[in-house]
UniProtKB/TrEMBL annotation, chains A, B:
Protein name listed in UniProt: S-adenosylmethionine decarboxylase proenzyme
Gene Ontology biological process terms in this record: spermidine biosynthetic process
Gene: speH
Record site feature (Cleavage (non-hydrolytic)), residues: 62-63
NCBIfam families: SAM_DCase_Bsu
Gene3D superfamilies tied to this protein: 3.30.160.750, S-adenosylmethionine decarboxylase domain
Annotated catalysed reactions: S-adenosyl-L-methionine + H(+) = S-adenosyl 3-(methylsulfanyl)propylamine + CO2
InterPro entries in the cross-refs: AdoMetDC_C, AdoMetDC_fam_prok, AdoMetDC_N, S-AdoMet_deCO2ase_core, S-AdoMet_deCOase_pro-enz
Listed cofactors: pyruvate
Length: 128, 128
């Protein structure tokens, strides 16, 4: 497999409080986003925090998706990293943002596996 | 919990081929790096790929660590993302790089949970 990959780092703000605390919804959203993008899921872990918040990861054959949610701040940090060029991680990130009712998404793309690291295509979408 | 976090993105090159394929060594290295940094481990998943390579994630109370290894290229992509300011993700990334015998590490720091995304402190260490 080639080392080249694309890593989308997304900051989701003004999300729905209850959705950020809904482990089942988040797990289903991530699985759906991965499969919809054409990824092959290998491992899934999501962990609820007390008193609130969810963290988790989906390991795909093409790298990973992760989330850390902060319901009290309406915030979720989301990463979608895919290797190869058959999958579009931006679409998966946008699908996740919409499922969590994010009002604003800041995102950047970081090519991986090339050498020195550079940010590409910084984007702010508000409203989504 | 505050949203502020620090995400280290690290590209490890010229690593030891066999170590990049050693699931047990990688899992132990990641657990050790997380605990040594003062993180609290919540979930651990590592997945071997056929014919080679390992992907995995450690979910910590303070966010996550991930790896995707490409033994055939001597390359591993590593992320260490920690919330709060009690943990130094750079130390954990460097510990992982050394455990995999990386000769070169490109890394950047991305503050998370603030708003727009910016890269900080791009660094190339060679040799480590």
């Amino acid at each position: 497999m080639e080392t080249l990959g694309y890593h989308i780092i997304a900051e989701l703000w003004d999300c729905d409080h209850d959705k950020l605390n809904d482990l089942q919804l988040i797990e289903e959203t991530f699985a759906h986003a991965a499969l919809n993008a054409g990824a092959e899921i290998r491992e899934v872990i999501f962990h609820p925090f007390d008193p609130q918040g969810v963290s988790g990861a989906v390991i795909i054959a093409e790298s990973h998706l992760t989330i850390h949610s902060f319901p009290e701040h309406g915030y979720a940090s989301v990463d979608v990293y895919t290797c190869g060029d058959s999958i579009n991680p931006k679409d998966a990130a946008l699908m996740i943002a919409k499922a969590l009712d994010a009002k604003t998404m800041h995102s950047v793309e970081i090519p991986r596996g090339l050498g020195e690291l550079k940010m590409k295509n910084p984007t702010t979408k508000s409203p989504l």
